[in-house]
Amino acid sequence: MSTSTSASLTPQSGAGSSEIFDSLPYYDNDLEQYPHLKQKVEQELAREAGTVPQELHPKVPPPFELFVKNPLLQAEIQRCESREPLGPLDTLRYQLPGPIGVPGSDDEWQSALDNAHAQLEHQRLRQTNLALLQQYGSNAWRIHNHRLEAAATAAEKALEELRRLTTEVNRDRKNFQTRIGGQLTSLETRWTELISSVLQIEMANVALEADIDRLNKKEVELAGL
């Protein structure tokens, strides 16, 4: 494995120290060269997938609660989230029942009369709302649609700008890592050449020491003669 592939850990000093993982993903290709390493990485990722904490990042804001001051709308949202069916419409409020008994008490007739007044007021409000809708509804919808189109256009432009910035960042990272990768390759090649030279020098030194020992022994033998 090349020296550039192994991620180096550089702990920072200080109270809030953290570890920096340094690597060149656009340059390193050890996983393609050594399939057994890729298999080990996949096994490690699969093993850690089940141990990832479900807690959100501290910078992620807490979930926003809708309609805190309106319990009816909150109950409706919970019903929609739980996929419960909508209850049947209460048709009794649109009927005009008379007193149950015959001829009926004063309270029963008063209740029926109040219900009739409520139904009449309801129909009057419906007629007023329909008249307002016919007069101003189309323009209100046009304005609303225009605002939605403007918001959608702004969101698309922001998304396109974000994609452009992301592409530039990735391009800069790739160019930087490719340039640094070339330097690393050159340094690794030079390091290999130096190691080879050192080994050759050591082997030559061993050979010279053997020749020196042999000549010393021969000198001693000649001196004895």
From TrEMBL:
Record organism: Gloeophyllum trabeum (strain ATCC 11539 / FP-39264 / Madison 617) (Brown rot fungus)
GO cellular component: a single term: catalytic step 2 spliceosome
Top-level taxon of the source organism: Eukaryota
Short name of one Pfam family: BCAS2
UniProt-listed GO biological process terms: mRNA processing; RNA splicing
InterPro entries given in the database record: SPF27
Biased composition annotated in UniProt, kind: Polar residues: 1-16
Region (Disordered): 1-21
Nucleus in keyword set: yes
Protein's name in the database: Breast carcinoma amplified sequence 2
Subcellular location, record wording: Nucleus
Coiled-coil blocks: 145-218
N-terminal signal peptide: none
Keywords carried by this UniProt record: Coiled coil, mRNA processing, mRNA splicing, Nucleus, Spliceosome
Assigned protein family: Belongs to the SPF27 family.
